[in-house]
Amino acid sequence: MEELVSKNLQNAFLSIGLDFRLLFPESKNEITDRWYGDYEWIVRDVPGYGTVINAVPPDEHLRSKPWEEWYEHENVVHHHVLYLDKPSTYDDIFDAPEHDDIHPPRTLGKRWWVVDDPDLSPLFLR
Q: How far is residue 30 from each of residues 18, 34, 58, 101, 124, measured CA to CA in Å?
């Protein structure tokens, strides 16, 4: 949990209209560390989208854990949960380019199954 705070994710989530402490309550610090402790958290300012927050599992867990992203676009906050293996239900397919300045490097060059999750909370903290 300290790692998330040290990366200034509180301000990043606030900038898209989400309360970090509601998403990552102190009562769930142990669960947060267990499930998200090895994730890479990347915050980028993307033209046309503003702040985009990505949580990407390490290479050895890319198939077993999803990539999550949060952003605000046209006054709506989005939470995407992306999988390398096709889930039972999904909303879109994202064929990540080989290179861009928007998405985390480990996610590039792969096909992702996208769930547009109406629940904005982190998947593993529900």
A: 21, 6, 19, 33, 12
Which strands, in side-by-side order, build the sheet including 76-83? 40-46, 50-56, 67-73, 76-83, 111-116, 92-95
pTM: 0.94
Residue 13 structure tokens? 């989530």
pLDDT tens digits along 8-17: 899 999 999 9
CA distance 2 to 36: 11
**What is the percentage of the chain residues whose pLDDT exceeds 70?**
99
What H or E segment, with its residue span, contains residue 68? strand 67-73
